[in-house]
Model the fold of this input.
Amino acid sequence: GDMKSAILAFKNAVREAPDNALYRFHLGRAYLQAGSFADAEKELGRAVELESSPLYALTAAKAAVRLSNWTDVEPLLEGSEGWPPELRASALALRAQVQLSAQQLDAAQK
Done:
């Protein structure tokens, strides 16, 4: 319903202005909310390429975590020490999630 129409609207906006980072961010976030994590990671990654934004990078990192693309997370969170407190806290939580998953993977492989 609403999420599909939001995705369609943002896709149309991106088609009209492919270099608009904000449109790509909103499209990526809509994909993330809809559970289309690969599409989300693609659009959010493109938004980060177009415009360096802590919010874009954090949201792209969330998509990478949902896809278990652990090695994609840290580069996106680089420099997060200088981010606003609420985004910095989310970045720390994502880093902890990645470390926990890596430990679980190590344990499972032993």
